[in-house]
From TrEMBL:
Membrane topology: Peripheral membrane protein
InterPro entries named among the record's database cross-references: AAA+_ATPase (IPR003593), ABC_transporter-like_ATP-bd (IPR003439), ABC_transporter-like_CS (IPR017871), ABC_transporter_ATP-binding (IPR050763), P-loop_NTPase (IPR027417)
Primary subcellular site in the record, as a coarse category: membrane
Biased composition (Gly residues): 307-317
Organism: Streptomyces ovatisporus
UniProt region (Disordered), positions on chain: 296-328
Cross-referenced Gene3D superfamilies: P-loop containing nucleotide triphosphate hydrolases
Short name of any one Pfam family annotated for the protein: ABC_tran
Annotated PANTHER family: ABC TRANSPORTER ATP-BINDING PROTEIN (PTHR42711)
Entry protein name: ABC transporter ATP-binding protein
Length: 328
């Protein structure tokens, strides 16, 4: 059994606006799965359904084999949730906040351990929440998510606001959790975070998953690039005819190809046979950033439909104020 199973998931808000439009994926036990997508793609709306905070409009969710909404009592003690905004009382200190939360958690870990794990022990433990930096608040949110020793951990943009060191520490911690067998589902806007952490990932746009797989599988779907400088005196006409169309700027040539190995071989064999030295030669697969940007720019077939993701609040999408009210 997979730790998380999602099938045909849909979520409609008021006035019929569909933020999640038939999403399916699964996360294996002990796996880190990253959900990526532009603002408004539907990541949080999806994760909230997995956390059992709302009932799906359609489709099925199972976490550890249970429906997280109707069987919340069975699921909640075994999951840890780090929401985008913790929303804890700002007058309490760090220790008081964690103690309060531990009081609501069965089998809570020692507070000192939880704070040490996220780097908030010592003097920072006595600081009021309102005096914490944005990154420190995220660490506090993480400590809360970990207090109940969760088997499944949901992290919604866990490192937003953290400095580079805090981010690296958090990545290390998430990796340690995976080693200990924890299943982690995270959303992030940092592509390098997904690259560094995720065993598999999915990219969402307008309520749908456009692509999913390992990092290698996802980038393999898009063209690779071969770049070089054309030696003086040579024109494009001299290159092997088997190469994909090239973009040329001055003497710089860029070829985008679905078959990196064979086109690179053709190019190099031609260069050797012609006695040509190719300057500034680079060959590489697509990057996750390129895949992400291409997906973000592709038009969505539903954009023009009333109430579709491209439409504004008047068609059913929410203003920030409405979102606040409806999420509470
Ligand atoms: N409570 C709500 N009522 C109506 N529409 C909502 C509500 N919450 C979110 N939406 C809309 O659903 C869509 C998806 O929002 P969601 O927050 O899930 O996206 P996201 O991918 O998490 O975005 P971000 O990266 O900005 O956090 C957006 O168009 C948003 O305006």
């Amino acid at each position: 059994m997979d730790a998380i199973e999602v099938e045909g998931l849909k979520r409609r808000y008021s006035k019929g606006f569909e933020a999640v439009r038939g999403v399916s994926f699964s996360v294996r036990e002990g796996e880190i799965f990253a959900l990526l997508g532009t603002n408004g793609a539907g990541k949080t709306s999806t994760v909230e359904l997995l956390e059992g905070l709302a009932k799906p409009s359609e489709g099925k969710v199972r976490v550890l084999g249970f429906d997280p909404y109707s069987e919340r009592r069975a699921v909640r003690p075994r999951t840890g949730v780090m929401l985008q905004e913790g929303g804890f009382p700002s007058e309490l200190t760090v220790t008081e906040t964690v103690r309060m939360w531990a009081g609501c958690t069965s089998d809570a870990r020692p507070i000192e351990d939880a704070l040490a794990q996220v780097g908030l022990s010592g003097r920072r433990a006595d600081v009021r929440v309102k005096q914490l930096s944005g990154g420190e608040r995220r660490r506090l949110d993480l400590a809360m998510a970990l207090i109940g020793r969760p088997e499944v951990l949901f992290l919604d943009e866990p490192t937003t606001g953290m400095d580079p060191e805090g981010r690296r520490d958090t990545w290390e911690l998430v990796r340690e959790l995976r080693t200990a067998g924890t299943t982690v589902l995270l959303t992030t806007h940092y592509l390098e975070e997904a690259e560094a952490l995720a065993d598999r990932l999915a990219i969402m746009r307008a309520g749908r998953i456009v692509t999913t797989g390992t990092h290698e599988q996802v980038v393999a779907e898009r063209p690779s690039r071969i770049r070089f400088s054309l030696p003086d005196g040579l024109t494009m006409a001299a290159l092997p005819p088997t190469l994909s169309p090239a973009e040329v700027s001055g003497n710089r040539v860029e070829i985008r190809t679905p078959s990196l190995q064979s086109e690179l071989t053709d190019l190099l064999m031609w260069a050797r046979q012609s006695g040509v030295e190719l300057q500034n030669l680079h060959a590489r697969t697509a990057t996750l950033e390129e895949v992400f940007l291409e997906i973000a720019q592709e038009p969505d077939e539903d954009d023009a439909a009333p109430g579709g993701p491209g439409s504004q609040a008047g068609d059913g999408g929410a203003t920030p104020e409405q979102k606040e009210v409806e999420r509470v």
